Amino acid sequence: MNKTLKMTVTAMLVAVGTITSHLFSIPIGFTKVFPMQHFINVLSAVILGPGYAVLQAFSVSLLRNMLGTGSLFAFPGSMIGAFLAAYLFSKTKKLSMALTGEIIGTGILGAIACYPLATLIMGKEAALFGFVPSFIFSSIAGAIFGFVILNIVMKSSAIKMFQEKNF
Description:
By secondary structure, this protein is mainly α.
């Protein structure tokens, strides 16, 4: 896949991620889960690969922060999740590994990476694993949604050809 096509698909995913990230939420207990970024991360991981998946996650986080619909915590969570999902998928070619990478990358590693951001940069009191519950619920919901959609879409010969040219 050429760079122009990869950048175009990345830009489309950034637009969709930015617009939908705050529109869809799932109430779980005391929190609201916003799964669209995780869904977009799994899509970009499978379709575009690690570099463009991280670029997409960074761009959505940046735009959401500029528009006032995101927080600084979106950066480490989404970028680590997108990278790990794309990396594991590129090594195994299994959709389940993209799902696993997003959940572990965002839900656990990204949540832990938010601790120093909260305490050192923002001056907030936070527990080391305090972000894990909300991040993990959100990443599970979005990653499963991405996994289901990709399982359906990957049956199309056009998508298979598109993805085979990528890797």
